[in-house]
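pipeline: protein-struct stage 2 | run 1193 | HipA-like kinase domain-containing protein
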Amino acid sequence: MRTVTATRYVTPLREGGSMPAIVEAEDSGLYVLKFRGAGQGLKVLIAELVAGELARAMGLRVPELVFMHLDPVLGRAEPDGEIRDLIKASGGLNLAMDYLPGSITFDPVAGPPPSAQEASEIVCFDAYVTNVDRTPKNPNMLHWHKALWLIDHGASMYFHHSWDGYLERAGTAFAPIKDHVLLRWATALRATEATLRTRLTPEVLERTVALIPDAWLGNEEAFSTPQAHREAYLAWLRGRLEAAPKFIEEAERARAQLF
């Protein structure tokens, strides 16, 4: 992954509680910056990073993710005190995604709907990473250049907000999949298990978890080192993959109840 430095704060995106922002970086590109000082902080960035890169490995469309250095000095001229405090609290390494100009939020009523294969892969993937935030109310998908793009994975992998029994919890069926915005179109769920196992290989999982910066780890009492913390994420992802038959069956059951 690339690392860039923020050079200009452009405008806030007042959506949800994390208040991301559009910023310009040294490469003159525009990015949506997720602040380490917002809400649940580093855990959200880790979920964004890991889930986003694994979605890309699945062949799903995700805007490019980059690490972004932020100097708190960027907030000195900001008149909004809340934004100024957020920038000040987020000095250091943050996470950002490529800004997709002209994109529009996916609307399940207005469409167009995705193909059965794409819908099934997205539903299956979200069940894998336990993403509770892809609902009709908040689909976290954009239409851009006539294609569907996935954004905002910070609510995924919520197990890491409490590490007690995390390996046992990796085997859950994930009942919240019943609220997934694409479930009605996901008619090829069973075939996606093979896709998961083919694309999310042990090497892919290891490579993705290795991306987590040490500076974002080591703040959990359960782990003595950043590497031990990183290995716990890897163990959960492996365990979650083994639970694929269970969470795919749950998705099929939930979909059957829609009709």
